[in-house]
Automatic annotation (TrEMBL), chains A, B, C, D:
Entry annotated with the keyword DNA-binding: yes
Domain HTH tetR-type: 10-69
GO MF entries: DNA-binding transcription factor activity; transcription cis-regulatory region binding
Protein name in the entry: TetR/AcrR family transcriptional regulator
Superkingdom, taxonomy of origin: Bacteria
Transmembrane segments: none
Gene source species: Nonomuraea cypriaca
Regions recorded as binding DNA: 32-51
DNA sequence: GATGAATGAGGATTCATTCAT
DNA sequence: AATGAATGAATCCTCATTCAT
């Protein structure tokens, strides 16, 4: 019985997270918690029961996203062609960004202070692995460091999203960055 | 008398703009209009008389900034060493960004929608000139286009600011971008 | 089985009362029912099953306290020195008050309206007995009535608690009241 | 013109204070600020413009009351019969209390923390004067101190109000306290 | 009977904007 | 034109109470 209830709660938690991701992606982190609740189909109190603070909700979203990205990076590192894996991941992330307003804002720390140290480090490690392998394959210069990759990843993701780059501009811009990694 | 008053009004307009730039730079675009008024030494009503909407005020600031940047770009294009002018300008803008919260937010469209088409085009033209000259000097690959430069400029400015890059990371990251422009 | 359950229920009821007394004593009547539940080690629903309303819970606590006070008064009336018993009881109650936030608030009706007619009458009877014996011993003027004693008891208890009297002020103040009873 | 406006503002400020006094007197300090605004006939924002915090509003009320009491005490000290002035003032305050819920709560510090050190000291000084004169006139024992008078004043005021004493009980109770002062 | 998740009204506070002076 | 007081919608958050499990 308790298990049942917890299942309900978990379902709600996930609905809230999904709703929040959508709402914040559309309207930015300034969107109201009430709108998240409405989109999730729950009462406002339920949102605050699961995430005692709006900030907690934002933090949960970002942590989730970062974790997902790290997993994707790991998958690419294991399976794919080392020469292309890093660039493929980079491209993928930037494309994704175009669909998520919050991510960029929050990765950036835009006004909201969300502490995501842990998940961010994990992502950097995964990216580091991709980088090392690309370097071993000779696809990236040896003196490029993980924090530089992360920095350009964040920069292009934000810009792609917020600046409303079209796919063509996005590709051309990434090409330049990738050329910078190579030469 | 009317002329007198208009002079007053113009002075007020400028004080408000200056105050707004300062306040929004420090506190971000979420800072209150009242704080701008206080810093400008005028009453809140005066701010709204000059800028009927907070958004108008934000727009005016960004337009001003973009215009200033365009002028700087032009100055460099006329005077400086074509091989270095583009990179110097690029570096300068990114460094500046670290001191201005609003700029990045607004260039990005963070929450607020400010229409700055004209001044942005003007800046792009100036940057285009810098680019052309750098290409003629052989410092940048020929197929790099102005909108790509603008895109990376915006991206690194935002990221440098919001991500809190330290000067070292900033330099290393720009080096990669510049390498991408070259080869 | 039903009997078993009722034993559980009774135990829960008492744990809740104890927890409520502690919580409300510390945080005042504004403390949340949830905190009471937590301290009692039961779920919030259980609290509301036993006391359908927060007010009911508060009422139960006050009734319990009044009953306890009446018992103490009775004990003093039977055993102690009639000359001192009333003053000892009075002093004791006021001292106690300093440790109980709710009591004063509730005796006072602070925001919450709790009906405690019966237990209050019983306390007044006990106090009446103490008074009568003190009068017979010549320690208190004959025209002092029980409701006056009760009134001053409530007054000094509340004030001692809420006003944060230090022990010295408390003693000096009580001395004046006792002098009023005597002469 | 500015003066006009300020007149409006002052009028509003006073309406708000009056409304607040009434509302908090009826419903206790837990009454909502919105109700105060409604009773004052202003929008909620106006209340917060004048008193940035609910607490500030409560503080203002209490300070005002204490000041008023101090003035009354001073007036009695100057004009009246020293033998009766202190008791008259004491009686008056307790009678007044019956009409004011907040006062008692706040003097007591009931939940809300309002800092009224200054006005309270001033009142104590005024009461001290009344006391000294009563002592010089031989109406009060010499070893009674001002803080004891204040303590009993607060105690009886609260109790009279919150306990709902009827006039008869009030008078009889005060007689006991006064007897304590004398003997 | 117990559990604890969900509800949703209520409350304090902020702030862009309007408007009387 | 400037002033700054007033407005009131919007927002975050709390908590008594209900109800499905």
């Amino acid at each position: 019985m308790t298990a049942q209830l917890r299942a309900d709660a978990r379902r709600n938690r996930e609905r809230i997270l999904a709703a929040a991701e959508a709402v914040f992606a559309e309207r930015g982190a300034a969107a109201s918690t009430e709108e998240v609740a409405a989109r999730a189909g729950v009462a406002i109190g339920t949102v605050f029961r699961h995430f005692p603070t709006k900030n907690d909700l934002l933090g949960a979203i970002v942590k989730g996203l970062l974790a997902r990205l790290a997993e994707e990076a790991d998958a690419l590192a294991e399976g794919g062609d080392p020469e292309k894996a890093l660039f493929a991941f980079f491209t993928h992330v930037v494309e994704e960004a175009a669909a998520r307003k919050t991510v960029a804002e929050l990765l950036a720390g835009g006004g909201v202070d969300v502490r995501v140290g842990k998940p961010l480090e994990r992502l950097q490690e995964s990216v580091g692995t991709l980088l090392r392998r690309a370097q071993q394959a000779g696809a990236v210069r040896d003196d490029v460091r993980p924090d530089e990759v992360m920095a350009l990843l964040a920069a292009t993701s934000q810009a792609a999203l917020l600046g409303g780059w079209d796919p063509d501009l996005r590709n051309r811009t990434l090409k330049i960055v990738f050329a910078g990694f190579r030469a």
